[in-house]
Write a structure and sequence with these properties.
The structure is a homodimer.
Chain A (H helix, E strand, L loop, with lengths): L3 E7 L3 H12 L3 E7 L3 H9 L5 E3 L11 E4 L6 H8 L8 E4 L5 H10 L5 E3 L1 E3 L20 E4 L7 H13 L3 E4 L2 H28 L13 H7 L6 H10 L1 H23 L3 H20 L2
Parallel strand pairs in A: 1-2, 1-4, 2-3, 4-5, 5-6, 8-9
Antiparallel strand pairs in A: 7-8
Helix pairs in contact in A: 3-4, 6-9
Amino acid sequence: VVLFRKMVVAGVGLLGGSLAWGARERGLVEEVVGYGRSAESLRIAKRKGLIDAGFMRPGDFPPDTDFLVLATPVLGMAPLARQFAPRIGPRCIVSDVGSVKGAVVRAVEKALPPGVAFVGAHPIAGSEKSGPGAAAPDLFRERRCILTPTAKTERGALRRVACFWSALGAKVEVMDPDLHDEVLAVVSHLPHVAAYALVRMLERARADALDPADYCGGGFKDTTRIAASRAEIWRDICLANRRALVRALDDYIRYLARVRRWIREGRGAALEREFSRAAERRRELEGAR
Amino acid sequence: VVLFRKMVVAGVGLLGGSLAWGARERGLVEEVVGYGRSAESLRIAKRKGLIDAGFMRPGDFPPDTDFLVLATPVLGMAPLARQFAPRIGPRCIVSDVGSVKGAVVRAVEKALPPGVAFVGAHPIAGSEKSGPGAAAPDLFRERRCILTPTAKTERGALRRVACFWSALGAKVEVMDPDLHDEVLAVVSHLPHVAAYALVRMLERARADALDPADYCGGGFKDTTRIAASRAEIWRDICLANRRALVRALDDYIRYLARVRRWIREGRGAALEREFSRAAERRRELEGAR
């Protein structure tokens, strides 16, 4: 069933590209137009059949768009919405795919013309890959998609966006934007910072003729896989969610300092107890969906 | 070619079991005897064909053993060597598979009867799985195996142990025990502590009716996969390598505190620069072996 006539996807990277492709393939939209800063990305997106057409100047935003999805790095979303604003029609629904919601949702709401409905969305379906070349039409299948309506969010728009994500195969749920950010700080943003930092430690451990990277086993590779993620995206996420992320980092640093003390003091029982609890919890995750 | 007549593998877990199996399958040893504290593990090891026979009392160590491999958690190795010592013959070669070398090698050397040759070894081939049920005869194929001889190490024994690991398919190299520990602290021990700690953060972020674990995507799962590792093994590794690990933890904590400050102060350029460097380095690792 056709949910929208003309969808604009701003940013045709991994998420935007997959969204465009999935929507086209399932016939959820009649036409998909991509916006991007790079001609190369738009070209790849068009050649792969993710989009029908593309534009690079915000002033070329098609005024008959009835669904706009922001899929750029999060700090770029509100400025871009502001640039599109003069050409966004009153019946257009706006959504996004950002990994941070609180500050981003507030900023985008402010940037849009009064009366235009905005529904914040975060499909939990990233990967360390990026760009339209990595897009897949089934990226969101069986993945959670968290919608974060505010007091301002129009209920009809919320339902339509929920319907759109369900049709892409996602498991849709609704959450408060700030609670979303607290949870994601712990399950996603902190692990990214931790992984980037672990990779940087390789530099520090470089000895004369020996490169520690040569001794990385599967454990190191798994633990740092997400450190291959695009820096620009994660810079924005860290800054946009700084309040919750700084708190999560504080907890993490404090906890690591405690473990360090136990190691230094030879407190084997404490170490074993903590590692056991973590191991048990981690094994549970494996069984879960 | 038969390298040893009777090999005793002390600890028939993932590493010991795989070692036994690989050696038997390739005909490198005539007989494999397993030592273990648990009758259940020995039973599984025997049923899977990893070992020919097993024993549970150190006093039953077969005196005609010509190759003993210690494959218990690292802090258990020297005490066990001491218990076996009265029955270890002068021509027996002793080795191990421990993830820590400096302190462990020194302690085992001291525990063995004078004249018995010891060759420290660390095959970099672990996983979060454990027990003889997870053993595989090809676990060491194409993996590095680091031998860490000391001034005391008999050259003939070093050659035979190197030959044994090569025959199992490992890429053998020689390294100073303390240098080994510094490198492994960064590429393996620190990541394990970091992963255990990330999983423990889930507990702290638990809100009312919401379990953060439900929102863990592939990124969290990869980053913490090794946190499912057996606590006892990692307790021992942390304690045995405490000097290098505490130093690595200090570096890591200091670096995280710096990233935290950049986030709090909104220093996007610094974040992007650091994340970029890490991402580039991490992508290089993917190409490497």
